[in-house]
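Q: I'm building a small set of examples for a reading group on sequence design. Run inverse folding on the following structure and report the sequence directly after it, with nothing in between.
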């Protein structure tokens, strides 16, 4: 054997051992850590669930059909009242639910100067469909009234007042208690009274627009100048 042969074999053997050691070290088992959570996923998990997707109930109450929400998100309501008598703008008014008599008077333009407010509770809560009458004088006691007219108007059997009604002092509401007289005809009678400085006789009813012979015959025994 040549003198260099053992040296070459030794170098080859050392190289083979080094390659085997590197291969063994590279394939050894290593511990694997779980991946860190993404920041966007953590933020999404902190948000409240979407009720439209999860089926959860909507935390904000919604108004029913036909109702309008107010500023606080609640459904608002209205009432309708009739304000008549000695106010500046009598008529039917729409007010928010929970309004009082004072609110109805303000909606009608306020009470006329010099009106006696005794007995009118302006702090009373209003109900839908009621009538607020201001400043009308009390009438005679009612006996067997059919209902529906102002206090002091007696309508037995719905035929009209028991005593003749004064055409020169009656209000529109009192005139409407007469048979066949509605709001329009009552206003015509008031207009005629204002334009002619009052009724001098019952026969002048024939000159009021809307009163013919048949209606005059029904009204004649029930009224006076």
């Amino acid at each position: 054997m040549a003198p260099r042969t053992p040296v070459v074999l030794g170098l080859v053997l050392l190289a083979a051992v080094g390659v085997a050691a590197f291969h063994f070290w590279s394939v050894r088992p290593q511990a694997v850590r779980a991946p860190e959570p993404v920041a966007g996923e953590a933020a999404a998990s902190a948000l409240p669930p979407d009720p439209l997707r999860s089926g959860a109930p909507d935390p904000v109450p919604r108004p029913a059909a036909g109702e309008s929400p107010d500023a606080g998100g609640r459904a608002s309501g209205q009432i309708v009242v009739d304000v008549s008598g000695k106010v500046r703008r009598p008529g039917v008014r729409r007010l928010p639910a929970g309004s009082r008599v004072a609110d109805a008077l303000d909606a009608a333009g306020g009470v006329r100067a010099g009106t006696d407010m005794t007995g009118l509770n302006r702090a009373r809560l209003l109900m839908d469909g009621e009538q607020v009458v201001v400043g009308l004088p009390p009438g005679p006691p009612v006996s067997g009234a059919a209902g529906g007219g102002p206090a002091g108007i007696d309508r037995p059997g719905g035929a009209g007042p028991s005593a003749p009604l004064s055409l020169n002092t009656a209000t529109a509401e009192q005139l409407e208690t007469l048979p066949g007289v509605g709001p329009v005809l009552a206003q015509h009678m008031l207009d005629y009274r204002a334009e002619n400085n009052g009724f001098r006789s019952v026969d002048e009813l024939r000159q009021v627009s809307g009163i013919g012979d048949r209606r005059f015959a029904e009204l004649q025994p029930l009224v006076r100048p």
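The longest helix spans residues 5-26.
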